[in-house]
Design brief:
- The chain has two domains: 36 residues; 224 residues, no CATH class.
- Helices cover 36% and strands 27% of the residues.
- The strands form three sheets. Strands 5-6-3-9-10 form a five-stranded antiparallel sheet, sandwiched between helices. A four-stranded antiparallel sheet has the order 1-2-7-4. It has a two-stranded antiparallel ribbon with strand order 8-11.
- The chain starts with a helix and ends with a helix.
- This is Phosphatidylinositol-glycan biosynthesis class X protein.
- One of its GO terms (biological process) is GPI anchor biosynthetic process.
- Pfam families: PIG-X.
Length: 311
């Protein structure tokens, strides 16, 4: 009787193990099937995306210069273009900046940008796109910086797919001692939107920025102007070996509407007040030091008097 129970137990045990293995195989098949519902927007797990675009730039150049950056983009993207695109479908995505403005007051503000991507549905329909990211590069002017820790907090909240700051990240340096920096933002794009949205799609990027200490100026303000951002689209295609990513060319063909540049007037102090401020600061520091010394002497005398009375 006991032997029969043992045999039944082993049979049930083996059946349970087989069921667990079959369930695991079913889950893995669901992850790998191209038509699986769970695989519609998470195929980036198997897609090999390259490092940040600006990482490659700063491996070649020490500082951020507009001329160097334009040369780098022209040469770098040439080797990263999607080779599976036919020649007549090279320019399938046309980005245009709809609006750029600063939000807030003072030395801590947000740069808000609205970008529209006009697409060619016929061209995109010929591509087997698994996953795409819009790459938004903001080359910050001198005198403005982005806090990497603040951006990482936004990344943890899921605002961006990825974000990184490059260049001079020393937050304490004044504007006349610091170099320019840039922010690279990655945002997810649903592949279905590329083929179903005939009128294109829009994205919005809000970057928290901070002003550095400015040089003294006669007017009391320094003007900082933001140029146009750089936009790219990186996709994972079936035609690439090992599902590696590549860039889909973007171009506005000179049809992008001109919008007003975002301008930040940063308080810098009036240069004519430099002498008065220096004198007042010196006198205040001297009086504060003198007060501390006199207070220390007075307190030490009180302690001596108390100790002598106790004796």
């Amino acid at each position: 009787m006991e032997s029969q129970q043992r045999v039944q137990f082993h049979i049930y045990d083996n059946v349970a193990i087989i069921l667990i293995l079959l369930a695991g195989i079913g889950i893995e098949v669901g992850r790998c099937e191209p038509n699986s519902e769970s695989n519609n927007f998470n195929t980036n797990v198997s897609c090999s995306f390259k490092k940040h675009l600006l990482t490659s730039y700063f491996e070649k150049y020490e500082c951020l210069l507009d001329s160097n950056f334009q040369d780098f983009i022209t040469n770098e993207l040439h080797f990263r273009m999607c080779e599976v695109l036919p020649d007549d479908l090279r320019l399938v995505i046309r980005p245009s900046v709809l609006q750029r403005h600063l939000i807030g007051e003072g030395s801590h503000r947000h740069l808000s940008s609205s970008i529209r991507f006009d697409i060619d549905p016929k061209a995109v329909s010929q591509l087997s796109i698994h996953y795409c990211e819009v790459i938004f590069v903001e080359r910050l002017p001198s005198g403005v910086f982005a806090d990497p820790f603040e951006l990482q907090h936004l990344l943890q909240r899921g605002v961006f797919a990825d974000v990184a700051v490059f260049g001079d990240t020393n937050l304490e340096l004044p504007s006349f001692l610091s170099n320019r920096s840039a922010v690279e933002v990655h945002m997810k794009v649903d592949p279905n939107s590329l083929s179903t949205h005939k009128n294109g799609f829009e994205i919005k990027v809000d970057l928290p920025l901070h002003a550095r200490y400015q040089r003294l100026d006669e007017g009391g303000y320094s003007t900082v102007e933001f140029g146009d951002p750089d936009m790219f689209m990186q996709c994972c295609l079936e035609g690439k070996s090992h599902n590696q990513s590549c860039y889909i060319p973007t171009s506005n063909n000179g049809t992008e509407p001109k919008i007003g540049a975002a301008v930040w007037r940063i308080p810098s102090g009036i240069k004519g007040h430099e002498g008065v401020v220096s004198v007042v600061t010196f006198i205040s520091a001297f009086l504060s030091t003198l007060l501390i010394v006199l207070t220390s002497i007075f307190l030490s005398d009180i302690k001596r008097c108390k100790s002598s009375k106790q004796l």
